[in-house]
Design a protein that fits this description.
CATH superfamily: Gcn5-related N-acetyltransferase (GNAT)
Largest sheet: 8 strands, mixed
Oligomer: single chain
Bound molecules: coenzyme A
Radius of gyration: 16 Å
Shape: globular
Strand content: 25-35%
Structural class: alpha+beta
Helix content: 10-25%
Number of domains: 1
Number of strands: 8
Number of helices: 2
Distance between the termini: 33 Å
CATH architecture: 3-Layer(aba) Sandwich
């Protein structure tokens, strides 16, 4: 199966929302769909990187990164992207499509000068794609406190190697994600 990973076009919106709805299921899906629509309209989230996976012109996966900053108490900042959400159509899961979406995302974000990528998510999944568990331990605070039992789910990937060495700061994310409900794993 040939998979193409490309930037989402306006005409992809309906299909990418549908993929998220299917992947997250009837309980969580509608909230995720609303979140994606909000992020895409959110000026504080720009530039966003919205990528889709296509096979034979069918949209089968989606990933969204929004603009953020990791800011130290001294006011220094690291250019950051926050990954939320991502989804692969259930019948195409476990074929490496999620990992490919993350890999292409990293490459394009790096080209844009982004230094760090953060995600709050499945602590066993994201390390398979280059993330490191427990960003708290590395000095990265989330916009809302993450319970200690979930620290492993708060993960980082340095696009600029070692950019977190000697740095500690708090994430300033876009308005749409700056709500407590999105920070409880
Ligand atoms: C999570 C998700 C994006 C992974 O995409 P995918 O294309 O199926 O995953 P990949 O093929 O890249 O990776 C497969 C590997 O990840 C593991 N994996 C897949 N989903 C996982 C999960 N939810 N938790 C832990 N590990 C998971 C598989 O066991 C497999 O492991 P292996 O490589 O050791 O065999 C996809 O399953 C999905 O859309 N899930 C529902 C929505 C969701 O939870 N999104 C993420 C929110 S944080």
């Amino acid at each position: 199966m040939t998979i193409e990973i490309v930037q989402a076009q306006a005409s992809d919106l309906g299909s990418l929302l549908e993929v998220n709805l299917q992947a997250f299921g009837p309980e969580e899906g509608p909230t995720i769909v609303e979140l994606i629509k909000n992020i895409l309209l959110d000026s504080s989230a720009k530039p966003c990187l919205s990528l889709v996976a296509k096979s034979a012109n069918n949209l089968i996966g989606h990933i969204l990164f929004s603009k953020a900053y990791l800011v130290s108490q001294q006011g220094e900042s690291i250019s950051t992207a926050l990954l939320a959400p991502m989804a692969v159509k259930p019948e195409f899961s476990n074929q490496g499509i999620g990992k490919q979406l993350i890999k292409v995302g990293f490459k394009q974000l790096k080209q844009q000068g982004v230094e760090l990528v953060l995600v709050l998510g499945h602590p066993e999944y994201y390390p398979k794609a280059g993330f490191i568990n427990n960003a708290i331990e590395k000095g990265v605070s989330a916009p809302f406190a993450i319970e200690e039992r979930n620290h492993d789910a708060w993960m980082y990937h340095e696009l600029l190697p070692n950019c977190l060495d000697g740095f500690s700061g708090q994430l300033k994310c876009c308005d749409s994600l700056n709500q407590a409900e999105y920070w409880q794993e």
